[in-house]
Amino acid sequence: MLIGGHWHDDGPKFAVFNPATGDRVGDAFDGGAAETAAAISAASSAFPSWSGQTAFKRAEILHQAYRLMVERKEELAQLLTQEQGKPLRAARVETQYAADFLLWFAEQAKRVYGDILPSPRVDQRFMVLRQPVGVVGAITPWNYPISMLTRKLGPALAAGCTIVLKPAEATPLIAIATFRILQEAGVPDGVINLVTASDPAPVGKMYLEDKRVRKITFTGSTAVGKMLARGAGEHMKRISLELGGHAPFIVCKDADPIYAAKGAAAVKFLNTGQACISPNRMYVHRSALQPFLTELTNRVSRLTVGNGLDEKTGVGPLINNAAVDKVANQVRDAVDHGAELLCGGERSSNAELVNGSFYEPTILANVNPDMLIYTEETFGPVAAVIAYDDDDDVIAMANDTAYGLAAYVYTNSLSTAMRYFEALRFGIVGINDINPTAAAAPFGGIKDSGMGREGGREGIDEYLDTKLGGFSI
Ligand code: NAD
């Protein structure tokens, strides 16, 4: 844990395991309410001087952190793979994505502009200032454990906020490595504080109850997000929430089904399906169904499941055995309700992988609304395919979910693309595009997928208050 510029070197610890092997990768200090309170005090003391720095100085430090992260990409990716499981190639991509947020917000720091407004009175002038909200309490998940850190640290630091961050209990080590880089880049003591914990509840409670925390930023499940939102309401704190999803992936009748299947195979099994924007319902026009399923099955059955450290691995483990059980349960439930299993459908039988949390990439056809997988986030390597006949019906079906994070559409018609883009009630829509994300683009959802945006021009707004000055002259 990093509190007020000092790394803790004694106290109870918890172990961190490699999900591919079950081996212990390392330990982290087990923090609780007292450490969180100390971290909030440190962040609160550091706020006046950090927020009083010029944006140029803050930008310079973020630029340096970006350079260090890129320089150490390989080392960070190796750690990320061992702690989280994703294939090395994906870990390198995620680390670069994490660094991109530092660079983007280094630049955005200098673009926090105010405003001069016209007044109805000749003797009055209006000026609008945008000021940092103060101490931020952040909580991040394990599925993208480095990029979700910088997506919060970057804008908070650029805006002039100080921060306490709690990473997921499965992935504290990559957080420690990231905080070391920021410290080395010159972030002053107390401006960034890291509290690792095996039990997240006391940390979240302290963020809510301590009046000095003025904003909470959370990425994780909808259930925890709603609990934090209720508490933030009680204490009237700013909050932004990046929560779960249940993305539709629509293959229109005018799409190329082979190209769409290629996209589906790539995006569904990325991070072993453990992504908030992972497609959960693949709606395929009945006329395109057979070629789509044939191509998808060909591609998915060729995916190599294994330890992410092996460069040949295409699909790594799930985060733990509970995640495997959840996926197995959804698949069993779907098959019991009439789904057709086209490939996978079981834990990996490879003898070398028995100690890891592996599940075979799976395709289910004939999925229908009676199945758990139709409404519950899977967070695993299962493609659920549903045939449809009518455009209006499929838009209604796609929108018929409590979530609203990402949606995907494959079509060769510009007017169909525009129609779907406008009609789908999601924060992000990929049109013939399986990766509609970048540091420069606003990421976030609506409905049960949360509120607020990260990245893009909007990302820094979450960390700024607007102040109006009225001057009588
Ligand atoms: P989770 O909600 O269990 O955990 C996320 C974080 O919340 C972890 O740091 C955890 O320790 C913490 N947490 C859990 N209970 C808490 C409590 N009572 N008080 C305070 N903190 C608490 O979710 P998860 O299973 O780790 O992550 C997966 C979820 O995150 C999925 O639903 C996924 O869709 C979502 N997610 C969303 C985005 C996005 O940008 N929208 C990105 C990644 C993941």
Concise synopsis of the structure shown:
The chain is an alpha/beta fold and 473 residues long.
Helices and strands in order:
Elements: E1 2-3, E2 6-7, E3 13-17, E4 24-29, H1 33-52, H2 55-71, H3 73-84, H4 88-108, E5 115-117, E6 124-132, E7 135-139, H5 147-159, E8 162-166, H6 172-185, E9 192-194, H7 201-209, E10 213-219, H8 222-235, E11 238-242, E12 247-251, H9 257-268, E13 279-285, H10 289-301, H11 321-336, E14 340-343, E15 362-365, H12 372-375, E16 382-388, H13 391-399, E17 406-410, H14 414-423, E18 428-431, E19 450-451, E20 464-472
Parallel strand pairs: 7-8, 7-10, 8-9, 10-11, 12-13, 12-17, 13-16, 15-16, 17-18
Antiparallel strand pairs: 1-2, 3-4, 5-6, 6-20, 11-19, 14-15
Helix pairs in contact: 1-7, 2-4, 2-5, 2-6, 3-4, 3-6, 4-5, 7-8, 9-10
This protein binds nicotinamide-adenine-dinucleotide.
What do these coordinates show?
The protein has 473 residues and is an alpha/beta fold. The protein folds into two domains: 2-243 and 447-472, Aldehyde Dehydrogenase, Chain A, domain 1, CATH 3.40.605; 247-431, 3-Layer(aba) Sandwich (Aldehyde Dehydrogenase, Chain A, domain 2), CATH 3.40.309.10. It has 14 helices and 20 strands. The strands form five sheets. It has a seven-stranded mixed β-sheet, with helices on both faces. Strands 9-8-7-10-11-19 form a six-stranded mixed β-sheet, with helices on both faces. It has a three-stranded antiparallel β-sheet with strand order 5-6-20, with no helix packed on it. Helix 8 links the parallel strand 10 (213-219) and strand 11. Helix 1 packs across helix 7 (201-209) and helix 4 (88-108) packs parallel to helix 5. The longest helix is centred in the N-terminal third of the chain and has 21 residues, at 88-108. The protein is globular. The termini are far apart. The model has no long low-confidence stretch (mean pLDDT 98). Bound molecules: nicotinamide-adenine-dinucleotide. Residues 139-144, 166, 168-169, 200-201, 203-204, 219-221, 224, 242-245, 276, 377, 379, 405, 445, 450 line the site of nicotinamide-adenine-dinucleotide (NAD).
